[in-house]
Specification:
The structure is a single chain. With 572 residues, this protein is mainly alpha-helical. It is 61% helix and 1% strand. A two-stranded antiparallel ribbon has the order 1-2. A hairpin with a 5-residue loop joins strand 1 and strand 2. The longest helix is centred in the last third of the chain and has 35 residues. It is globular. It starts with a helix and ends with a helix.
């Protein structure tokens, strides 16, 4: 480190030049090197380099507002003013690891105008700087908390969809800081309605606390709305942030079960802990004015219930009736979210709790049992089947209206048929597994069998939250941990039944009943004289499922969502 520090001035100047000359898609390794080098560099050596970057950034902003470009305009970092501004803003962020509080304040001040810029690229870089300040420099964030809250709250209307993912990173530290009992008194930005004199004085009394709660509610509502973003990365970031925020608030203020503590507080919900407080804030969205807000709220509640099923068991009897009432609305967007919520309940809630609420659940679900649009009919059937497997067919039949008894009868027949097929496959494959072990071949058939040897691997992979598996129209497969069904009285393999309705027509029905079907080969005709066709026919007749395609999404992914593929040379 000492040897690198001695040449930091020369190397950093060279790395800065390489960074600005590289295309944006190739800058990641250079920016990582600059950040690591700046962390080793003395603040006195880094200060003039950082100052030159900030001065050029300011000049770029000033020149972009002029009608005629000046002759001494900055031309490094891109072909247009927007790309140059982004390049220098990102370069300034790379130096943040070695900056003192004075330099960090300068960086924050340079990034603030970009929070409300109309260019999505500039806004993304600006929120990236603010996110670093909130996440990596907690002492500086605490000193500038009032200004940070004002910038984030004031930039809500101007925030673009492309910058939402980086904006979300700012919200968690701010919500935790504002929710903390040790939050210092400060002059917070005025209320959105500007109807309280207490908020203008704000520093003392109950006005500051009320304003703080109002800001926390608005920030949490923004996180909830991001659960409905079309961008997958933003949506995933919102779900992850909700879970992290819930864990953090639960660690700071664990949930209490003692009734005396709850009765002793005004609006005793606050005495139940941080997790219950967060859930109360989110539940306010159930009475939202738009279907979009109500739908996003139900999705957020489903995600928290999926993660904290054990801790929220006592709240489900209060929450479930309010959510089930939404099944009577005419908004299909809301109904789709509620079906996903009920699906999570059917996977994560204890059998006793599900059994006691079967009546209201079935009453709401069966309102959409004959609606095929948006695959509601299929979703309802999957949920009813899950309830029947976990609670028992007799318990579900006792609560099922006579007019819908045919649905349960059909599900029972399908379940028994598949159970018999599964038992016969397990028996026929027992000898094959022994032969395959002797030959040293891959134990592919044993992994497909109904035995429980490989269930741990399937459970580990299936236990991860998947938005599309719960709410999307594209997939109605089970999204929850199959291991969670161990609490079921019935036991056994509780994998979801593929109804084949998404394939439609007689082809799907015949494909389910006849195991010896040849798979479709696309546009090219199938050569029946080919040996592979015969092998495929034998495998299908034996009930062996084909391996997933090589291009299926089985690769590991990094934090950016990109696939990680290791070369054979690297593995060796």
């Amino acid at each position: 480190a000492g040897a690198l520090r001695a040449w930091s001035k020369n190397w950093l100047a060279l790395l800065f030049k390489v960074f600005l000359e590289s295309p944006p898609e190739a800058r990641a390794p250079v920016s990582t090197a600059i950040s690591a080098y700046c962390a080793l560099t003395d603040a006195a050596v880094l200060a003039p380099l950082f100052r030159s970057v900030v001065l050029k950034l300011i000049k770029i902003v000033e020149d972009s507002s002029k009608e005629v470009p000046p002759p001494d305009m900055v031309t490094e970092g891109g072909l247009d003013p927007t790309s140059r501004r982004c390049s220098f803003l990102e370069l300034a962020l790379c130096t943040a690891a070695g900056l003192d509080d004075v330099g960090l304040a300068t960086l924050y001040k340079a990034a603030k105008p970009g929070l409300t810029d109309k260019e999505a690229a500039v806004q993304k870089k600006a929120y990236k700087v603010v996110a670093y300040v909130c996440e990596a420099r907690p002492l500086f964030m605490r000193e500038q908390l009032a200004d940070l809250v004002g910038q984030v709250v004031g930039g809500t209307a101007a925030s673009l969809s492309a910058s939402k993912r980086y904006r979300l990173r700012c919200l968690k530290p701010l919500v935790l800081a504002l929710s903390s009992p040790s939050c210092p008194d400060m002059q917070l930005p005025g209320g959105m309605e500007d109807d309280s004199d207490e908020e203008e004085q704000g520093v003392q009394g109950g006005g500051s606390d009320a304003r703080r709660r109002e800001i926390v509610g608005s920030l949490v509502s923004e996180i909830v709305l991001c659960c409905k973003e079309s961008n997958k990365k933003t949506r995933s970031a919102a779900y992850e942030l909700l879970v992290q925020l819930a864990h953090a608030m639960d660690d700071v203020e664990p949930m209490r079960d003692d009734d005396e503590a709850m009765e002793g507080a005004e609006g005793g919900a606050a005495m139940r802990g941080g997790l219950h407080h967060l859930l109360t804030i989110i539940m306010a969205g159930l009475v939202g004015t738009t279907p979009h807000m109500i739908s996003a709220t139900v999705m957020a509640l489903a995600r928290l219930l999926y993660e904290f099923a054990g801790q929220l068991e006592g709240l489900v009897p209060e929450l479930l009736p309010a959510v089930l009432m939404l099944l009577r609305t005419k908004s299909r967007e809301v109904v789709k979210s509620v079906l996903g919520f009920v699906k999570v309940c059917s996977m994560r809630m204890p059998v006793e709790l599900l059994t006691s609420n079967l009546g209201p659940i079935l009453e709401g679900l069966l309102l959409w049992a004959e609606d095929s649009k948006n695959k509601f009919k299929l979703k309802v059937r999957v949920i009813v089947e899950r309830l029947a497997r976990r609670c028992g067919f007799e318990a579900v039949a006792a609560k099922m209206p006579p007019s819908d008894a045919k649905l349960l009868t059909h599900i029972r027949k399908e379940h028994n048929r598949k159970q018999r097929r599964r038992d016969s496959e397990a028996g026929s494959q027992a000898g094959d597994e022994a032969d395959e072990d002797m030959d040293g071949e891959d134990d592919t058939r044993s992994r497909r069998s109904g035995a429980g040897r490989s269930s741990m691997g399937r459970t580990a992979r299936a236990s991860e939250w998947g938005h599309s598996k719960v709410f999307s129209d594209e997939s109605d497969e089970e999204a929850g941990p199959r291991g969670g069904d161990a609490r079921s009285r019935k036991g056994g393999d509780t994998r979801s039944v593929r109804t084949g309705a998404n394939r439609g027509g007689l082809a799907s029905i015949s494909g389910q009943r006849a195991g010896g079907r040849l798979a479709e080969s696309g546009e090219d005709p199938m050569n029946l004289l080919d040996a592979s066709a015969s092998r495929q026919l034998v495998r299908n007749a034996a009930g062996v499922r084909p391996r997933p395609a090589a291009d299926s999404d089985d690769f590991r992914r990094n934090d950016e969502g990109r696939m990680i593929i290791n070369d054979e040379d690297d593995e060796g």
